[in-house]
Amino acid sequence: MLNIAVMVSGGGTNLQALIDAEKGGQLRGARIALVISSRPGAYALERAAANGIEAVSLGKAEFPDEGEREKAILGALRGAGIGLVVLAGYMSILPPGLIREYEWRIINIHPSLLPKHCGMGFYGKRVHAAVLAAGDSESGATVHYVDEGVDTGPAIIQERVPVMEGDDADSLAARVLEVEHRILVAAVNKVVSEAGQAPGRGPGR
Ligand code: GAR
Question: Residue with the nearest Cα to atom 12 of ligand 1?
């Protein structure tokens, strides 16, 4: 069993999708062992607690210094024997040492068709507002490996949704979120099942 850490900042519906998949036996070869939030008030922490998952807030509030924050997060990941880190609505930038230590073992979900509408400042509703402002006829969601850039690592799974007449950021977000919940579970299963098959890449390395 591979131990997964899910990193969150807000409502945690993507975390819930992973929890539901694990409960339903659809998460193959992996279990959610730890939830780390960047904010103490994140509702995702309550979802973790309600499901008996160890959860902790290790953000700027607890560790204003980036070096200390990195140490705390790395300590928690090592302590729980984490083999794969899933960023699911994590709105903070990961410290670079953590990205190096967990290279090819961190994945992120982004609510657009990467490489469109991403990078610093493009998160949550802002992404959907940018899609509408650009007049795009479609949007979607992407799960990708995390490298030291913002939303720049190689894609694992991407799925499209149409932009509908009369959409606002909320209606588009809801349509994309449905896809997110599905492809996040699929991407975790894909990464876990490929672990060890590609040397130098993936959680089994
Ligand atoms: C999701 O749409 C996720 O893709 C997005 O935040 C939302 C979190 O929802 N992430 C980003 O924008 C990261 N750049 P959730 O807390 O309900 O899972």
Answer: 123
Assign residue 103 the CATH number of its domain. Answer: 3.40.50.170
Residues annotated catalytic, as ranges: 110
Quick one: tokens of 148?
A: 């030291």
- The answer as to whether 131 is a domain residue is no
Query: Do 108 and 148 contact (CB within 8 A), yes or no?
Result: no
Each residue of 12-49: pLDDT tens digit?
999 999 999 999 999 999 999 999 999 999 999 999 99
Q: State which residues form the domain around 187.
A: 2-109+143-155+183-193
Alpha-carbon span 142 to 68, nearest angstrom = 31
Residue 97 lies in a domain: yes
Q: Over the stretch 166-187, which tens digit does the pLDDT of each residue have? A: 999 999 999 999 999 999 999 9
Rounded Cα distance, 160 and 141, in Å: 7
CA 148 to chain centre: 15
User: Does 151 map to a domain?
Assistant: yes
Q: What is the mean pLDDT of residues 45-73?
A: 97
**126 CA distance to ligand 1 centroid (A)?**
11
Domain count, the chain: 1
**Is 50 inside a domain boundary?**
yes
Query: Ligand 1: residues within 6 Å at CB?
Result: 10-14, 88-89, 109-111, 123-124, 127, 177, 180
